[in-house]
Each structure stands twice: as C-alpha cells, then as structure tokens.
Amino acid sequence: MGRPVFRRAGAAVEARQHPRVAYLDRDRALVEAARRDPTRFDALYRKYLAQVYSYAYYELGDHHEAEDATERTFLQALAALPRFEERALPADGEGASTFRVWLFQIARNVVANQRRGHRRHRELPLETAAVIADPLDVEDRAAVRDEALAAWAAVGRLPADRRRALVLRFVEEMSTAEIAGVLGRSEGAVRVLIHRALRSVARDLETGRRR
Amino acid sequence: MTLTPHDGAEAEALVTDRYLESLLLAGERRAVDAPSDAALPPALRRAARRLSRDLVRVHPSFRFEERLAARLAEAAAAIQASESMTRAGQPLGPLPFVPADIADTADMADMADVGDTVAAILPSSPAALAAPPAVAPPAAAPPAAAPAPSPAAAPLSRPLIVGGALTSAALWIAGAAYLAWRRNRSSLGPMARAARIAHATRAAHATRAMDAARAAAGAAAAIHAAPAGSPVPD
C-alpha cells in the first residue's frame, strides 16, 4: 500500500547523517499527542480548520460544499493519523511532508471527489468580499468589494492546476516545497505554474483596468 | 552556453518566487511598504500585491466549527473504544469498505487502507452528513401472518456491528467444526502411527503389570488368612 508521501531513493542514508531534531516539524508535539489519544486531535483541528475550509471554499466556490469537504477531510485525517509519517528533512527531497502537507493532500482528494460528484456552478465570493471591506465605510466597502471580485474572477478563470497553486501560495501562504508536496509535483514545476498563473492574472487585471 | 526557452521560463519563475516570498514575509511582518524587485515586470508585481491583499482566508461559521468539533470528538472516542476492544481480543471490527462517494480509485489509492476506519465514522452520503443521526422507532409486534421483509426494504440499522457479529459467529462455528474434525481424523502419517503403536505398547505393559501385581497381592492375602498347618495353595 502506497503512502501519501514518497521518499526519494537514498534519502534514508542521508537522513541518518542529519540530526533529525534539527528539523522538528512544528506540529510534531500535537501529532504525537493525537496519536496517543485521538481525542486530542482537537488541537490540530482548531489550528487548521480555517486553512482547510478556505482551500475548499476557493476550490468549490460554495460555503455548504466547503463545509462538507472540510468535515470529510478532518474525519479522514483523524482515521488515518496512525499511518501518517513525518518526512520533513531536507534529505527527504521533493514531496517532503509535514502534517500540514499531508492534511492538504487529503483535502485535495476530498475536493476532487466532491467536484466530480457535484458539478455545480461556482458562486462569486460576495460574502468574502463583504467580509474584507470595512463594514462602516460604505464607499470603501464597495470599492474593496469590486476589486476583490475582480481578483477572484481573474483567479477563477485560470486552469484548475494554476488556480490551485495560486490559492495555496497566497491564501494558505505555503512555500513552494509545501505546494509541491500537496500537488505531487516538483518544486521547479510549481514555480513555473505559479509564475504563469500570476502572468495570466496580471494580464486579466490590466485589461480590466483599461476597460 | 545558451539558455533554452525552458531554462528562461524557470529563471523567470525563480525571480517571481523570490519576490512572492519577500511579499508574503512582508505581509506577515505587517510591513507598510511592499518589497520591490526591478527584475520582475511591474504588472506582475502589481498583480502579486493585489492577490496578497484580496485573496483572504475565509473562516467557517462558529456553529459549523463547534458541530464538527463535536463530531470529531465522537469519532475519536469511537476509535479509542475500537482500539481498546481490539487489544482486549474482542472480535469487533468494521467491515472493510469505503463509501462509494468517498472512495476514489484514482485519487484515493493512497488512502484506501483508511477506508475501514473511515467507514465506521462517516455516513455514506453527504446528505447523511448534514442530517442529524436518525433514531430508530420502537419495533411494533409483528402480525402473525406478516410476510417476510424483502432485503431491499429491510432497514440497514448498524450494518457494521451486525456484520461484525455475524463474522465472529461464523468464525466460531468454523473453529468448532475444525476441532471436531481434527479429533476424529485418523492420521496416516508415519510419525503418528509410531506414536500410536508406542502408546498402545505402553498401555498393554501397564495393564499386564497391574494384573500381575493384583495376582501377587491376592496370593499374599491368602497365605496370611490360612490357619497354621493348612496346605499352602500352589
């Protein structure tokens, strides 16, 4: 049975040469606690809820669908936690995984399944745009909302893989290595993906500005 | 040495990546000024700044957060109970299947082994996820001539536990049958034959020795019981 992450050949030898303690995963203590006592998974859940939910929302464009996806992601993660293997060493190479990368791999699969199941029309993030604007300043609110909608629309027009990479970079603030782990690609490929996505969005926004 | 178009794209991508890294770090530090990088076209810089400002993280509702937290706590307790039952050696286990809407042969290949546990936790449809857990109505006394319920119409209440119990009962019956068969089976192996002959020989020896001892004891008793001067039996 394959693991969610893959270690490149020879990584084990190199790993022994690096003191593992120097590359502590920031979630290691929480993960270990949840492994010993599944009821302590709550701490990991609270920490990553907004991130997973945001990712699902940007992917599915619907709050209810995002809630479903989030629920499934965390239930699957809880069930699979004993089989999670942290591979956060530089020697582990591309696809090195921390808990966050592993969690987002599950989220990506869940969202992909859900998207296949419900081919619904994506909603524009009106609520999101309203949230980021100042609720007291009506003019500012409208302007920010319009700009946010334009940015969202530009991102929404991207091909799925570019949009996903951009959301992971900007919304989840993941590093290129982490995105590579989530998407199952090389770091170089992710960099090119993000660069092209950004170029498309820039062209789109510039065209909108001139209109 | 000349750069191929592919190398050129990677070099540009590296510059973009470096800029995004500094932009996101500046956002983390809440810096007022965005970093500038002359190597990157201004349009790209503007787009990056705009996206870092407008693509915000969305929080779910508090109600959803607490509902899912309760759900996870229940699932965690179920996992704990299942683990303790397994340690105690009780044959309680969910059937190894993944609900069709969760399992996916392409994307979920890595997660397939999660299926057995997930199946115990998750209901089989998104609608069921949203709905509160159903409570079965109390069973009414069946009429005398009630027709047998069809399998399709029969409600699937607690299929996993029922499935587990059936499996354990079947294993128990199979185990008992195997033991009975082993006990009655005549073994034809040479070692078994030799062991059986040795056992029979030892038993025959023991029987003969017992008989001889009994006879000797009888004779001794007769001698003691006979009056003095009476003839001793041969």
| Helix content estimate of chain B | 55-70%
**In whole angstroms, how far apart are the ends of chain A?**
54 Å
Q: How many E-type strands of chain A?
A: 0
Mean pLDDT across all residues of chain A, rounded?
Answer: 78
**Broad structural category of chain B:** mainly alpha
Radius of gyration of chain A: 19 Å
Chain pair with largest interface: A-B, 72 and 57 residues
Query: Oligomeric status of the shown chains?
Result: heterodimer
The tally of strands of chain B reads 0
**What percentage of amino acids of chain B are in beta strands?**
under 5%
| Apparent shape of chain B | rod-shaped
Distinct helical segment count of chain B: 7
Give the overall shape of chain A, derived from the CA principal axes. Answer: globular
Mean pLDDT of chain B comes to 64
Largest sheet of chain A: none
- Counting helices, strands and paired strands, the structural category of chain A is mainly alpha
SSE order and pairing:
The complex is a heterodimer of chains A (211) and B (234).
Chain A: H1 11-17, H2 28-36, H3 42-60, H4 63-80, H5 99-117, H6 126-132, H7 138-156, H8 160-170, H9 176-183, H10 187-210
Helix pairs in contact in A: 3-4, 3-5, 4-5, 5-9, 6-7, 7-10, 8-10, 9-10
Chain B: H1 5-28, H2 42-54, H3 62-87, H4 115-121, H5 126-130, H6 159-184, H7 190-225
Characterize the structure shown:
The complex is a heterodimer of chains A (211) and B (234). Chain A is mainly α and 211 residues long. Chain A has a domain at 1-123: Rna Polymerase Sigma Factor, Chain: A. Chain A contains 10 helices and no strands. The longest helix of chain A is centred in the last third of the chain and has 24 residues, at 187-210. Chain A is globular. With 234 residues, chain B is an all-alpha fold. Among the domains of chain B are: 9-54, no CATH class; 66-127 and 163-183, no CATH class; 192-222. Chain B has helices at residues 5-28, 42-54, 62-87, 115-121, 126-130, 159-184, 190-225. In chain B, helix 1 (5-28) packs across helix 2. The radius of gyration of chain B is 41 Å and the shape is rod-shaped. The N and C termini of chain B lie far apart (125 Å). Residues 94-167 of chain B have low confidence and may be disordered. Classes of the chains: A mainly alpha (211), B mainly alpha (234). The interface between A and B is large, with 72 and 57 residues.
